[in-house]
């Protein structure tokens, strides 16, 4: 019984996990949202996506090129996780935040894993999963550039505010 008490004590609070290709213009919007959120908290902002974020007492920041099954173990240690990604206009809203349920989804692409599938892996392998959400932000251009398009830059503050509000309703920042 003592093992479970210790395990529960090491449960982390919040993970903000952005993913995308920052070398493909708006596909890297997640990194910019992470930076905006870190700035909101008064944290030092990395100058490049290759650098790590300064972690706060209750929020960890991470940026990856893509989601992978190996992330499930780390993610399962959190109470809350919010995924950030770009979308190409297949979602009606320019910025949308939705709850993520555990749902394994098969993909015809070998290197594509959804947040829903990652939650399913957490639940299946570790018997638990965090309360999760997915923030999708409209990308307009996906050329070879590390800069966001003007249209997507304009969406970043609103996206950071949505995540802030979600966390405040869930975790009382």
Topology:
Layout: H1 2-9, E1 12-19, H2 29-40, E2 59-64, H3 71-75, E3 78-87, E4 95-100, H4 115-126, E5 131-138, H5 150-153, H6 156-171
Parallel strand pairs: 1-2, 1-3, 3-5
Antiparallel strand pairs: 4-5
Helix pairs in contact: 2-6
Using the coordinates shown, work out and report the CATH topology: Rossmann fold
Order of helices and strands: HEHEHEEHEHH
Categorize the overall geometry. Answer: globular
How big a fraction of the residues is strand?
15-25%
Low-confidence segments, ≥5 residues, pLDDT <50? Answer: 1-11
- Main sheet: strands, sense, barrel: 5 strands, mixed
- How many angstroms separate the termini? 31 Å
Give the strand order, joined by hyphens, for the main sheet.
Answer: 2-1-3-5-4
- CATH architectural group: 3-Layer(aba) Sandwich
Share in helix: 25-40%
Q: Return the CATH class.
A: Alpha Beta
Oligomer category: single chain
Number of helices: 6
Structural class: alpha/beta
Mean pLDDT comes to 87
Whole-number count of domains: 1
């Amino acid at each position: 019984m003592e093992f479970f008490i210790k395990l529960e004590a090491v449960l982390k609070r919040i993970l903000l996990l952005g993913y995308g290709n920052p070398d493909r213009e708006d596909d890297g919007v997640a990194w910019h949202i992470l930076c905006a959120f870190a700035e909101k908290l008064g944290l030092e902002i990395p100058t490049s996506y290759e650098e790590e974020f300064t972690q706060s007492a209750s929020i960890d920041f991470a940026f990856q090129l893509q989601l992978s099954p190996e992330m499930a173990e780390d993610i399962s240690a959190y109470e809350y996780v919010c995924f950030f990604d770009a979308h190409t206009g297949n979602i009606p809203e320019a910025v949308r935040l939705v709850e993520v349920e555990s749902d394994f989804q098969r993909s015809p692409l070998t290197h594509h894993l959804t947040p829903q599938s990652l939650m399913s892996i957490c639940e299946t392998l570790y018997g638990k999963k965090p309360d999760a959400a997915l923030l999708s932000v409209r990308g307009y251009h996906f050329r070879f550039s590390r800069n966001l398009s003007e249209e997507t830059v304009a969406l970043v503050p609103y996206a950071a505010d949505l995540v802030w509000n979600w966390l405040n309703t869930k975790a009382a920042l």
